[in-house]
Amino acid sequence: MITKQATRSGPVFTVPSCGVGAVTHYLRFPTAACPVSRNPVFGLVKVAYSPKDRVVEVVALHQWILQLAKPAHDHPRSVESMTQRIAADLSESLGVVVTVDLYLLVMPCQILHVRA
After folding, report:
1. Is 86 within 8 Å of 100 (Cβ atoms)?
2. In this predicted model, what pLDDT tens digit does every residue of 37-84 receive, in sequence order?
3. Whole-angstrom distance between the N-terminal and C-terminal Cα of the chain?
4. Which of 21, 37, 93, 110 has the most CB atoms around its CB within 10 Å?
5. Beta strand pairing status for 12-16 and 110-115?
6. Alpha helix positions (H), 20-115
7. How many other CB atoms are there within 10 angstroms of residue 36's CB atom?
8. Residue 70: left (phi > 0), alpha (psi -120 to 50), or beta?
9. Are the beta carbons of 95 and 52 closer than 8 angstroms?
């Protein structure tokens, strides 16, 4: 039995990859993250990378994304900069190239796709 030990690496926790060649995480993006428009009505974050020796612990990754997307009245943010921050921080934590795709359904009936 292999015991995976989670360690803090930047903003998230990582665990040993155990030889995994490619990783893709699909996580829900919080709805109504914008305090003004109450958009998105649905959102999905896709995180993809080829790990060296560690992978991101998924629960910690999702909690971190929820924290980044939390509505803030005094701090304007954009989905583009949020997507770039997720990709940059994960790339730094893992030491590999990380691609992040953010798909949002915003009203009135538009699909927004951001890639970093």
Report:
1. yes
2. 788 888 899 999 999 988 999 999 999 998 888 766 666 667 888 899
3. 37
4. 93
5. unpaired
6. 58-69, 79-94
7. 7
8. beta
9. yes
Which residues on adjacent β-strands are paired with residue 26?
46
Least Cα distance to 17 among 4, 35, 32 occurs for 4
Beta strands in 1-116, from DSSP E residues, in sequence order: 7-9, 12-16, 23-28, 42-49, 54-56, 98-106, 110-115
Domains within the chain, CATH numbers bracketed: 7-115 (3.30.1130.10)
Give which of 113, 106, 87 is closest to 34, Cα–Cα: 106
All residues at 6 or more sequence positions from 114 whose CB lies less than 8 Å from its CB, including other chains? 79, 80, 83, 101, 102, 104
Name the β-bridge partners of 114.
102
Sign for the CA dihedral angle at 85, 88, 91, 92 comes to negative
Task: Calculate the average pLDDT of the chain.
Answer: 85
Whether residue 8 is predicted with pLDDT greater than 60 in this model: the reply is yes
